[in-house]
């Protein structure tokens, strides 16, 4: 109503109005069922499949998964440290036992690639 009087009719109201803006209702997010999630993960392969399993199995958000570093994974205690998450705080989440071997294999492959790069004098980073 304030908009109509002020901007359309270009009339001022006789009294001041302390209007409260309508709030957006909070909506629950849509979540895939376990079968739907497994079907989506089944379409991925290689590092993308590993990332999808990490997202689903640990509850990581996409950017937290992309920023994940080797030092953030504790294989002995089956934990993943999420640094600077959504609330800009560190948190610890579980690492599924079924992801330990694929992660170790991935890290071994990356280490081999790094060693090959060092042998070819591509740099040490």
Can you walk me through this structure?
By secondary structure, this protein is mainly alpha-helical. It has a single domain (32-119), classed as hpI Integrase, Chain A (Orthogonal Bundle). The protein has five helices and three strands; from the N terminus they run ααααβββα. It has a three-stranded antiparallel β-sheet with strand order 1-2-3, with no helix packed on it. A hairpin with a 4-residue loop joins β1 and β2 (79-82). α3 (47-58) packs antiparallel against α5. The termini are far apart. The mean pLDDT is 89.
Summarize the structure.
This protein has helices at residues 2-8, 34-42, 47-58, 62-66, 97-119, and strands at residues 73-74, 79-82, 91-94. The chain has 125 residues and is mainly alpha-helical.
The main sheet comes to: 3 strands, antiparallel
Helix/strand structural class: mainly alpha
Mean pLDDT equals: 89
Q: Ranges with pLDDT <50 over ≥5 residues?
A: none
- Number of structural units classed as domains: 1
What portion of residues is helical? 40-55%
Strand ordering within the main sheet: 1-2-3
Architecture (CATH level 2) name = Orthogonal Bundle
| Strand composition percent | 5-15%
CATH superfamily: Intergrase catalytic core
Count of beta strands? 3
Distance between the termini: 62 Å
Specify the number of helices.
5
Which descriptor suits the 3D outline?
A: elongated
SSE ordering: HHHHEEEH
CATH structural class: Mainly Alpha
CA-atom Rg in angstroms: 25 Å
Q: From the structure provided, what is the oligomeric state, counting identical versus distinct chains?
A: single chain
The third-level CATH topology is hpI Integrase, Chain A
């Amino acid at each position: 109503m304030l908009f109509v009087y002020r901007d359309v009719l270009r009339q001022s109201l006789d009294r001041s109005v302390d209007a409260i803006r309508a709030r957006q209702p909070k909506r629950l997010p849509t979540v895939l069922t376990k079968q739907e999630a497994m079907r989506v993960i089944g379409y991925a392969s290689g590092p993308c499949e590993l990332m999808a399993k990490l997202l689903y199995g640990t509850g990581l958000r996409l950017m937290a998964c992309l920023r994940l570093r080797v030092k953030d994974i504790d294989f002995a205690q089956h934990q993943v440290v999420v640094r600077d998450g959504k609330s800009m705080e560190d948190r610890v989440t579980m690492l599924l036992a079924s992801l330990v071997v694929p992660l170790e294999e991935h890290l071994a492959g990356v280490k081999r690639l790094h060693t090959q790069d060092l042998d070819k004098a591509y740099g040490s980073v």
